[in-house]
TrEMBL record:
<dbReference type="Pfam" id="PF13628">
    <property type="entry name" value="DUF4142"/>
</dbReference>
<feature type="domain" description="DUF4142">
    <location>
        <begin position="57"/>
        <end position="190"/>
    </location>
</feature>
<feature type="signal peptide">
    <location>
        <begin position="1"/>
        <end position="19"/>
    </location>
</feature>
<keyword id="KW-0732">Signal</keyword>
<dbReference type="InterPro" id="IPR012347">
    <property type="entry name" value="Ferritin-like"/>
</dbReference>
<dbReference type="InterPro" id="IPR025419">
    <property type="entry name" value="DUF4142"/>
</dbReference>
<protein>
    <submittedName>
        <fullName>DUF4142 domain-containing protein</fullName>
    </submittedName>
</protein>
<feature type="region of interest" description="Disordered">
    <location>
        <begin position="23"/>
        <end position="50"/>
    </location>
</feature>
<feature type="compositionally biased region" description="Polar residues">
    <location>
        <begin position="33"/>
        <end position="48"/>
    </location>
</feature>
Amino acid sequence: MIMKKLIIILLASANIVISGCNSNKDSKEKADSTNTHQDSIHNKQTGTGDWAISAPDAKFAVEAANGGMAEVELGKLAQEKGTSKAVKDFGKMMIDDHSKANLELKELAKSKRIVLQDSVGKEEAELKSKLASIPANEFDKAYINAMVDDHRKDIATFENARHKVKYPEMKVLIDKALPMLKMHLATIEKIKMQTPD
């Protein structure tokens, strides 16, 4: 009984030390690190194993999850702070479309044992904080510019990953998401053209 308690205490201490070592990483980096670690232990050393995840799929899934969660959070901010109907409507579309896409990605990742983060990475958190601090009369323009840049990057990320991922299901997910992302980009670029400087 005493030995069992001692083992539990030692394991708990080890978890605290491991958590402490990773405390300077954001949630995106932690997910990437976990996937790389599991892949190297179970896949690269043994060639098999019950984990054996595809590294390109895991990397893309973490990146896509990060972008998707950021779109939802920034969409909520647009609904709160946006002054034009176009920006508020676009924010709602981000919440609706990306929440659905995020759920599909989460289910696929779970089926492939890919670990996803539970919050946005540092860069996206900083963007949200920056946009949240902007005066209301400047918010729309800043949000629109951020969404144009973000969707251009997202499209490039998805198109690049399409040639690297291994799982057929991930390719299907990318093929489904790309038209949505391109539609979002076309919509926000149109809003940008109609918004006075």
